[in-house]
Amino acid sequence: MISSRSLAANALRLCPSPQSYAQRACFSTIRSAPHLAIRLLDTAVPRPIRSGPRTLTTMSLTAAQKHSMTELPNLSVQRVPCLSDNYVWVLHESGSGKTAVVDPSEAAPVIKALDSRGLKADYILNTHHHFDHTGGNLEMKQHYGATIVGPAADEARIPGIDISLKDGDTWDFGQLQMRVFDTPGHTRGHITLYFPQAEALFPGDTLFALGCGRLFEGTPQQMWTSLSKLTPLPGNTKVFCAHEYTQSNAKFAVAIDQGNKKLQERKRLIDEQRSQGIATVPSLLSEELDTNPFLRPHDSGIRAALGVAPDAPDVEAFAAIRKAKDNF
To answer: Any transmembrane segments, and where (predicted)?
Structure first.
């Protein structure tokens, strides 16, 4: 059997000079995670991959799948664009053959993606009650007989919920175990889903690429506490957030964190990526720790930009960052 590292070495020889963002991502991932190399070689080509439902209907679904799939140990994760900027995540656990759908904002695009792969939704996993995360619940439950799993603190607002989970709970998805974090802030009952064996995080609207959710039902203290539960996870954790907000988040981030060279480079790559219609999600948690201002309230440059005292608590700086973003 050929090892993943041998495949990665061949992949590096075959890749052209990495001029585009996607090709650079290919090289970076081949070096750091050779088990992803072959999948990324299939996806890291410099051609437009639109992130809206319209383009998914005009390109072949097979091609769309190639550009939306992340292969992890025992877990494949497919990105299905819905509504204007939502991402629904289809999880397939290879050991058991079970499939789960995270935050189905609408049913039709997800059913189409599942049917094209010969899959059915065994489970629906909801991070919070907002309609753009639960709008497809009942139709998909009726269509597949899916079991709906969601936050205990919000069970009265989750359509069709069958299983309620809270902070510290674990739930078995085939041969993988999912850990649950209560992460209130965006909503009072929000949860985040984490698969440690696959190093995959599904934070809903708690953590975005270069951002975090608005505080519709919670306080800055709640959201900062929630984010602080996620930051100790391994840096290689893939963050599968629920919206394509990255480019607008990047514009804000560079405005308040002007001395951050890693952020400047990331924004440049994001702008290139989005100019080609390529999705920016998932990201790595290590990237967020280095460049996401909402995870960096301790930074002296950010504090100076927002007029926060150097000795102020981190939650005070976080609140200032959130307020500045709301008014940006």
So the answer is: none
Residue 65: pLDDT over 80: no
- CATH of residue 42's domain is 1.20.5
In tens, the pLDDT along 157-173 reads 999 999 999 999 999 99
96 and 173 co-located in one domain: yes
pTM of the model: 0.81
